[in-house]
Design brief:
Elements: H1 2-17, E1 22-26, E2 32-36, E3 42-47, E4 49-54, E5 57-62, E6 65-69, E7 75-79, E8 83-88, E9 91-96, E10 99-104, E11 109-113, E12 117-120, E13 127-132, E14 135-140, E15 144-152, H2 156-159, E16 162-163, E17 165-166, E18 174-178, E19 181-185, E20 191-197, E21 199-202, E22 213-218, E23 221-226, E24 231-237, E25 239-243, E26 255-259, E27 262-267, E28 272-274, E29 289-294, E30 297-302, E31 307-313, E32 315-318, E33 332-336, E34 339-344, E35 348-349, E36 354-355, E37 358-364, E38 367-374, E39 377-381, E40 387-392, E41 397-399, E42 402-406, E43 412-415, E44 421-423
Antiparallel strand pairs: 1-2, 2-3, 4-5, 5-6, 6-7, 8-9, 9-10, 10-11, 12-13, 13-14, 14-15, 15-18, 16-17, 18-19, 19-20, 21-22, 22-23, 23-24, 25-26, 26-27, 27-28, 29-30, 30-31, 32-33, 33-34, 34-35, 34-36, 37-38, 38-39, 39-40, 41-42, 42-43, 43-44
């Protein structure tokens, strides 16, 4: 009888939880609110943005004002910062001018400092990586400083496994610079490689454990070592650029060095320099071109070691459609500081550098256009780079000669040249 009562109560609460599944949604006018698909209950569509509920509260925005509401739409607390996002139970990350910090649901500011950036760990609760200029530190909102703001690194996204949040574990090898020397350290201070190298560059970025190889510099020359410090490729090159990887990255893909202005491809399995990066027995294909880094600058090479985009840019990524009918290589977006431009290998820059974090070329309504992201603003530009329309806090993309956007339910809307959205 007691077991039966337990089952009845258990299923009662399971079913009851289904009556409170308020999900954010967007109406045809572009306003956000909440709807429970099982009960039909709604929170009015009056917000410019609405996030998921966590522990009975949700973050919403009206114009540039953020606040928390409960599942009845009651306002709980205003969070007086222009940029806010949920990070974990009862905690929100905010940015205001140059200051970053963590604020609780009750309004208590747990951390507020003059950081360049603050990024939450997606694997370790209460842990954050802070950046200020070239310096990096790691702290916990519960226990305080873990690694002081004394370290530096190349390619932050790779070292810390950044994908929105950062994803590194307690024993992940962190390749960092400290007091002008490079080494590898775990989160809580265990030294994997001593801080005695002139430079270190891990292959493949974030790793769960110290496994694989690193480009290393000693006495002015680069070679390749493993995580025990054992030499794998001799120290006789001016620069180490990385590994010419395919999409099934493996250790048999060639390692890329430079001597002077010449690219050198080195096959570790054969222990020799090779003329061309080609498919190995463990790979289905090799990419025709590869983005690598020389120091903190990015460039692109082909399988023969030709430099098709010079190593001059902070970031390089896909830049949209082809400019020419017989264009053989992709269009790239290249970034310098706070500006970006589009580059076609073999041709050069196709646009001037514009303020923004990304630029993409395409056609919409039979017109040559560009989509530019600048902070929280997304704008459609004409062929002369004049703004046709712009949105705050909304993404747009090219699709079948149109401009489209999507709401929180994945529903597509077609955006006209007047900026008005027709939801399908």
């Amino acid at each position: 009888m007691n077991a039966l009562k337990f089952l009845i109560i258990f299923f009662f609460f399971v079913n009851l939880s289904g009556f409170s599944q308020m999900e954010p949604s967007t109406n045809k006018a572009g306003k956000s609110g909440y709807k429970d698909k099982k009960t039909g209950k709604i929170i009015p569509f009056i917000y410019d943005d609405a996030k998921q509920f966590h522990d009975g509260e949700a973050l919403v925005r009206k114009e540039k004002v953020h606040f928390l509401i409960d599942k009845n739409g009651k306002k709980l607390k205003e969070i007086p910062y222009p940029s806010v996002k949920y990070v974990q139970k009862g905690e929100y990350m905010f940015q205001s001018d140059s200051a970053w910090g963590i604020i609780s649901s009750s309004g208590e500011v747990k951390v507020r400092m003059d950081f360049t950036e603050l990024v939450r760990s997606g694997m370790i609760e209460n842990v954050y990586v802070a950046r200020k200029g070239d310096k990096i530190g790691i702290f916990s909102t519960e226990t305080g400083v873990i690694l002081p703001m004394e370290y530096e690194c190349d390619e932050f996204e790779k070292v810390f496994g950044r994908d929105g949040d950062v994803y590194f574990g307690e024993t992940s090898p962190l390749t960092l610079k400290h007091k002008d020397k490079w080494g590898v350290i775990e989160l809580h201070g265990k030294i994997i490689l001593p801080f005695e190298y002139e430079h270190l560059k891990a292959i493949g970025g974030y790793l769960k454990e110290p496994k694989g190889y690193l480009g290393a510099k000693k006495n002015g020359k680069y070679g390749l070592i493993d995580y025990q410090g054992k030499e794998q490729i001799p120290f006789e090159y001016d620069f180490f650029l990385g590994q010419y990887c395919n999409r099934e990255r493996n250790q048999n893909d060639p390692y890329v060095f430079m001597n002077g202005e010449k690219i050198v491809l080195y096959d570790l399995s054969a222990k020799s320099v090779i003329a061309k990066a080609s498919r190995s027995n463990e790979s289905y294909y090799i990419l025709d071109y590869c983005t690598l880094s020389k120091g903190n600058k990015r460039g692109v090479i082909d399988t023969l070691g030709n430099i098709i985009i010079p190593f001059e840019y902070d970031v390089i990524f896909f830049g949209g459609a082809d400019f020419f009918e017989k264009q053989t290589l992709s269009t790239y977006c290249v970034k310098k500081g706070s500006t970006c431009a589009l580059y076609v290998p073999g041709v050069g820059l196709k646009t001037p550098f514009l303020e923004g974090r990304s630029l993409e070329y395409g056609k919409a309504y039979d017109k040559n256009c560009f989509i530019r992201y600048k902070g929280d603003e997304c704008a459609l530009l004409d062929a002369e780079f004049k703004v046709i329309f712009k949105f705050d806090f909304k993404d747009i993309s090219f699709f079948q000669n149109k401009i489209v956007t999507y709401d929180k339910d994945g529903k597509m809307g077609v955006v006209g040249l007047d900026g008005k959205i027709t939801w399908e």
